[in-house]
């Protein structure tokens, strides 16, 4: 339904009432460019690599909240999903507010200073550091309300990153914003990388090694101590009278 609404709302971009004449002139000039213009993939990749690394860090934190928070309240405070719904809603509401505040803050810095790099960088750095500051005390508190408040503040700070980091690809290469956005979005594959790294760490840990050795020893011991099948006892069938 959202896709249909989007197509209906933007079906005629030139006649859209929210476009100013200046914006329409820019779009018209852009549409007259050669559509077959080659994309400089290697220079764009080198330029976008730091942005992708930052997106990787953000994506890891995002999926940490989305996948870990429900189990956190259950394991630490013995609250099931129904009991922790209020705290979960508060944590995720903090992230929603952070999405909006991050964009407004970045735009305000840009209007005041005219420095695009500062408008993006300052908000992103502040969001990452704020998330760290509010996440660390969570492991030291034992009150569910305090922990939920700290998590909400941490998620708020982390979500400050969203709006400015999505603006960076358009700032770097406005003529290839789709390609640069895709490169940056690749960084959100952090959950897959974290799962692989955790699997690799667990597979190479001493405890895991001892477990595998113990399993191999048990299997080999069973093979060594396996007894042969006992012979079946002979069954004597009595003969009927008159036989044999």
Itemize the secondary structure elements and their pairings.
Blueprint: H1 2-9, H2 21-31, H3 41-77, H4 85-113, H5 116-135, H6 144-159, H7 162-172, H8 177-185, H9 190-204, H10 206-224
Helix pairs in contact: 3-6, 3-7, 3-8, 4-5, 4-6, 5-6, 5-7, 7-8
* Number of discrete helical segments: 10
H-E order: HHHHHHHHHH
The rough form would be described as: elongated
| Cα gyration radius (Å) | 31 Å
Structural class of the helices, strands and pairings? Answer: mainly alpha
Mean pLDDT: 76
Helix residue percentage: over 70%
Search tags:
244 residues, mainly alpha, 0% strand, 10 helices
Tell me about this structure.
This protein is mainly α and 244 residues long. It has a domain at 39-190. It is built from 10 helices and no strands. Helix 3 (41-77) packs parallel to helix 8 (177-185) and helix 7 (162-172) crosses helix 8 (177-185). The protein is elongated, with a radius of gyration of 31 Å. It starts with a helix and ends in a 20-residue tail after the last helix. Residues 201-230 have low confidence and may be disordered.
